[in-house]
Amino acid sequence: MDGTTLGPGGAGLNLPGLEDLRAAMRERAVVAEARVVLADRLGCHEDEALQHLIWLARDLGTELEETAALLVTEDAANTQPQTAVNGSPRLTVGDVDEAIRHIRSRADDPTDPAGPAGIADRAEEVEALLGGLTDEDERADQERLAAAPNDPAAQAVLDSALGSSSHLIPVRADDGHVVDFLHRAFGEAAEDIFGRPPEELLGRRMLRIDPGALLNGLFPEYVKVLETGEPFACGPIDYSTVHHGTSRSARLSIRCVQVPTGICLTWRHHDDDDRVRRRLDRSERLASIGFGEWDLAADETVWSPQMLANYGRGPSDEPVGADDFPKIIAPEDLPLFEQAMHVLFSRREPVQVEYRIRTPGGSDRHLWLNAEPMLDRAGRLTGISAITQDVTRRRSIEGALAETRRDLLRLQGESARERQVALTLRRAILPPDQVLAGAPGLSAAVRSIPAENPARIGGDWYVTRVLPSGRSLLAIGDASGHGLAATADMARMRHGLLGLAYTGECSGRLLGWLNDMTDGLGPATTGTAVVAHFDPETRQLTWSSAGHPPPILVRDGRAERLAAAGDPDPLLGAFPGMEYATNATPLRDGDVVVLYTDGLVERRGADLDAQIDKLAGMVEGHGDNLHRMLDDVLQRMGHDRFADDTTLFAFRVGG
């Protein structure tokens, strides 16, 4: 199908297949409406009614949509057999009713394939049944309206109706039975379910413009009122109808009375009332708020369902009586409740009070009450209007939060004390004024900054020492974990290395021993380290790494990482008995070697290699002042002082 263009002059939005989409939507609407109608007639669930509708379509020999349209057609009012052009009987609503009765009769045997005799053979007449009125029919309707006399009784009903109202006159067949009604007049407040103005409906047949009277079984009742004079009333009911393939449903209360020229209908829409009630019920349920009133004169109490639920009562239970409140209120809260009642009844002032109760089920609840006196014009107390809210969950949460706050305050104090101990221990272990004091051929600087978060103080450590052989020991490391435990592990690793260093062994052998010692501290203890020796005679740097970020060498203003021979060695404490490789790097006067911990280069979401390259770029081009270089690097790298320790250590060859 060609696309449909919307907009002035044919310009605008092009919607391919719009008519197909509309047709499909109309078919779905009709099927949905037919399912509702059939469910109402059969007294079953809508899902079951859909299955029955499918069976009915099979019995009729028609498509599902055609059968659904037949159920909700505007011509459904005409239940008398008609004669087709070829003389064969036409398919009528009576046939459909026959099929529905058949469905009821076979409810206990849904597999029965039989259908009402003759319906399948006449299925092609469905379309003819949906045809419109002839010109002759319309002229006859206008004559009926013109011939109808004035009806003061009908006008009185229309004028006095508080809601929608209509005056209808009957349309009779040749044999005298009523086949429809004509709208002769509407009340001022008339409201159509499809929103059509009364002027559009005047003079038209009721079942033509709204077949809902037939679909909902009301049309026979209207005819009965016309013929017997006995008034009819129903509602609120779920009223469903259809117009041009669009279905609508509403909650209605309907009244029908006889007048001299026909009948008068009055109807009231409850949809707004139902929506307000549903919203109120939902609001009460979600907020656990209940409403209640106590009529003192009649001694009657009315509670909403949520009010009953707040007191542990069911919908069918009676409200709590005045004499029963002292029995369910906690003894500790009873004086406060009685004082509030005294203010309410004696001083006739609104009160608010919170108290605990014990429900019939044995659970304890916290209720908040807001009660107001209802007074007559003379100021006499006639009743009490009250609202209660179940605040048990709120009080439970508040109690849990208060307990959590107390725990956090306790942990905060413990963390502060632990941080102070850790800082004191760090200062004792890592004195900043003893960095390579007296080392021949070297000058050094260090920055070791503990984390500001007490829980994140880590195990960063460094060692600088001139050994008896004249070599300088240069080491940096990081014990895993945070807090006082990590600080203690850091002290053991550092002191252990210092003791081992006096054996004169190479850096790889020292790391092997340090690895075995770390493994002995516990299964959860690990660490990383770089251990180096500088020989002032040969200007050779020998070094080994255990899972630590690589040293950076700055020579002639260019920085590069020092690469270890072979694969990187694992961290300390991971594999006992490991042998660590020793690497040799010759140095020259003016060379600078930078050692650092992961706190300087690790960032969440950032690539570690890129961060190390960034650090290497920052240490290039600095002069002889190592302290200024370290301060500049710390500022530009933007290390997170809150998250982890940061240690940065640099030494220059040549002093």
From TrEMBL:
InterPro entries in the cross-refs: ANTAR, Bact_Sigma-Reg, PAC, PAS, PAS-assoc_C, PAS-like_dom_sf, PAS_fold_3, PPM-type-like_dom_sf
Domain PPM-type phosphatase: start-end pairs: 443-653
Extent of the signal sequence: none
Residues of the ANTAR domain: 11-72
TM stretches of this protein: none
Domain PAC: 351-403
Record keywords: Hydrolase
One Pfam short name: ANTAR
SUPFAM superfamilies xrefs: PP2C-like, PYP-like sensor domain (PAS domain)
Gene Ontology terms for molecular function: phosphatase activity; RNA binding
Protein name, as recorded: SpoIIE family protein phosphatase
